[in-house]
Amino acid sequence: MVDVGVPIGKYSDSRPVNLSNHFVVVDPYYAFTYERRKVEWSARLHYLWNSTNNDPFVGFGVKNIQSGQAFHLNYATSYELFKNVRLGFNGYWLQQLTNHEINGVAVPNSKDRTVGLGPGIQFGGPGIWFRVNSYIETDVRNRPSGIKVTFRISKALPTAEPQP
How far from chain centre, in Å, is Cα 97? Predict the structure, then answer.
């Protein structure tokens, strides 16, 4: 799969905070799941590329900025406790491969890195799933760190049955 993010929403180089990021993001990834009896393991391997923002906030006093490229991985493993209830362990790892750039020049020692590890639970039924994951970050470099909790709802949309 390939996720592509394009700059939409209002953007102004005179405002330090905007709804849009004003650059393109390309994030190809490979996802897989292995399931055997009550145990499941899944992962997504990503490569992240960001284009250049040629119109950054004027307060920076620069012509362009570009975030570095990165590899990141998300994984989860779980065990089915009861029908439609799974308890597991989750994680992610991000390693930035290239430094950020300002005006086409690399910013030394600006590569991000983090590892997040923690428990998770999934429950639901036909067509809807709820997931809560918690992560304690470690091995963090050049970014804020802490404990993160995510809550996600997934809803399957009905499909029309083929007519004979």
Answer: 16
DSSP β-bridge partners for residue 133: 120, 150
pLDDT at residue 30 tops 90: yes
| Residue 56 buriedness (CB in 10 A; 0-12 / 13-18 / 19+) | buried
Q: How far apart are CA 34 and CA 40, in angstroms?
A: 6
Distance in angstroms (rounded) separating the CA atoms of residues 142 and 110: 6
Confidence band (pLDDT; 50, 70, 90) for 38? Answer: very high
Q: Which residue has the higher pLDDT, 90 or 125?
A: 90
What phi and psi values does residue 18 have, to the nearest 5 degrees?
A: -135, 160
Residue type, 88: G
Question: What amino acid occupies position 10?
Answer: K
